[in-house]
Amino acid sequence: MKDNMIKQLCSLLAIMVLCGSAGASEGKKIFETYCWGCHHQTAVAFGPPFVQIAKKRSAEEIQAMITDPESVSKVFGYKRNAMPAFKLKREDLDAITRYILSYKNVKVQ
Question: For 36, which DSSP code?
């Protein structure tokens, strides 16, 4: 019984890891399609790097900034905003949000 439970837990863990890496690769693909022109993962470009965004913002704030940057910029107290609004499918919005947040604990030299 105990061995069977351990096998089931190992299988579940393997599935979770595989799903997580698939989500990360999908988020990276969306990043390369929509974000790469202005954002980089760890270096400042036109917009802030994902490392900085992930450390300062929640998932909800990130998604709001992607979908309605003009309004959110005002709430955050920014004087101007150059980011366009993106209309993404829910699963794409979730994937890019997970990808951005995956940089939360990345150390930059």
Answer: T
Q: Is 106 part of a structural domain of the chain?
A: no
Asked whether residue 36 is assigned to any structural domain, the reply reads yes
Instruction: Give the domain extent around 23.
Output: 2-101
> Which pTM does this prediction carry?
0.74
Q: CA 74 to CA 86: how far, in whole Å?
A: 17
pLDDT tens per residue across span 16-53: 433 444 456 889 999 999 999 999 999 989 999 999 99
Number of domains within the chain = 1
Q: Map residue 52 onto helix, strand or coil.
A: helix
As a dihedral over the C-alpha atoms of residue 83, residue 25, residue 29, residue 34, rounded to 10 degrees, the angle is 0
